[in-house]
Write a structure and sequence with these properties.
Elements (H helix, E strand, L loop, with lengths): L1 H35 L12 H12 L2 H14 L9
Helix pairs in contact: 1-2, 1-3, 2-3
Length: about 80
């Protein structure tokens, strides 16, 4: 019986660990995008609405929507993506 209980606890905590990893990964991608690819402030570049929406999705906890967009924006700009925990 204790063995089944341990298995159940392991299964219940696994999604929350993945959720935390997605949150930190999405935050890192957002930070990289903002730092290096968002508007330069000199009025020469228009903001990328798609990236802004992806950053907002990450902030709202919708990592499945935000992460792929930010990964694509960064890789298209020849950035190496951070390691995912």
């Amino acid at each position: 019986m204790p063995r089944k209980l341990l298995l159940l606890l392991a299964l219940l905590t696994a999604p929350s660990a993945a959720f935390a990893d997605d949150a930190s990964y999405c935050a890192e991608l957002s930070s990289l995008y903002r730092r290096y690819l968002s508007g330069s402030g000199d009025g020469q570049r228009w903001p990328d609405v798609t990236a802004s929406v992806a950053i907002d999705e990450c902030a709202k906890g919708n990592y499945a929507a935000g992460i792929p967009v930010l990964e694509k924006k960064l890789t298209d700009a020849r950035f190496t993506l951070p390691k995912r925990n």
